[in-house]
Write a structure and sequence with these properties.
The structure is a homodimer.
Chain A: E1 2-5, H1 10-22, E2 27-30, H2 41-46, E3 54-56, E4 62-63, H3 66-76, H4 87-113, H5 135-154, H6 168-179, H7 192-205
Parallel strand pairs in A: 1-2
Antiparallel strand pairs in A: 1-3, 3-4
Chain lengths: ~210, ~210
């Protein structure tokens, strides 16, 4: 098994935190997105989607979605479960994973990729070029400020996002909150529950 | 347990097919999206996100993401598994679910919601208004025609999308292919493997 990733980028960071929390070590090669190594011939031969992370299994199967890789690794390493153990926990974790993706990660990625010069013609990840759409920057900001109070309200009544324990949903949210700095956003002062949760989550991963 | 849904819409249809295939019956109330019932006070009290489907559990917990509801129901009704049984199958199904969402469902929703008069100021689902961005129609079309040949190539070597058996990934794809008609798109003639798979998948659900 070999992992191709770039730990600094938000999406791969979700996997890095998952592995760190569970104490999983895999032979890893960093693919430097700052040098556009994911777009080179060498990496395209490994992952035609030209995205990281990508986990190459010993039989040649490639897993190239974070949630797929985490699902696979959780089955192999059930200790310190992060994807839930009961039916309801499993449902809540995957629900939040999806909700944070649509409500926070896509908006943040829209804000970054449709404004930064480094993403000119690279408004979407993957092998195809897409022009930047400046309107998506403001739309992303509006979406972001819709979900933040909702998350704050959710965390008013519970310590962790998806239920009683720390889960992958908290990792998703932690990475998304840190991603906000990339577009010069931060958690509003009035979101006190979200701020308190952020310190708890960081401590959990320390 | 009570399900609020609108079987005709693409996203709820994924759940309807999942339940039909597994033979799961739940007390159900249709929320008529054509009459904007999801935006009314009555439904907002049930699901503040104002989206369907939403599954209300007996303890008052609400599950409002399709993948979360399916995860919950698969645990309760493991017969005729649709989310995979081995570690690799589970990983492949959830990976495809996510990949189809980003690469096909969002592009199709962008095409529909940013062009149809019925979605004026409703370019994104949920409780908030968002202006239509006509540029997303063409971007959605480009994205759609990127993923279709990839799906065709994937299905050249295997009968089902996520591995040896029919899974929820096939349901996701079937609903997405049918969704194409809403924006006057169809599977290109040269995607023969995808076309053959479509007939197989429809037969599996008949």
């Amino acid at each position: 098994m070999k992992l191709y990733t770039y730990d600094r980028a938000p999406n791969p960071r979700r996997l890095a935190m998952f592995m760190q929390y569970k104490g999983i070590a895999i032979e890893t090669q960093q693919v430097d997105l700052m040098k556009a190594e994911q777009l080179g011939e060498q990496f395209r031969a490994i992952n035609p989607a030209q995205t990281v992370p990508a986990l190459l299994l010993d039989d040649g199967t490639l897993l190239s979605e974070v949630i797929g890789i985490c699902t696979y690794l959780e089955e192999l390493h059930p200790d310190r479960p992060l994807l839930g153990t009961t039916a309801l926990e499993k449902a809540q974790v995957i629900s939040w994973d999806h909700r944070l993706f649509t409500g926070m990660v896509i908006p943040l990625a829209d804000m970054l990729r449709n404004s930064a010069e480094a993403f000119r013609n690279r408004a979407l990840p993957g092998p195809y070029d897409f022009a930047q759409l400046p309107e998506l920057v403001e739309r992303g900001r509006l979406q972001l400020h819709c979900i933040l109070p909702e998350l704050d309200a959710q965390l008013a009544g519970q310590a962790w996002l998806a239920g009683d324990g720390f889960t992958f949903a908290d990792i998703d949210l932690l990475v998304a909150v840190d991603f906000m700095a990339w577009v010069k956003e931060s958690v509003p002062a009035e979101c006190t529950h979200l701020k308190a949760w952020y310190e708890r989550a960081k401590a959990e991963l320390a």
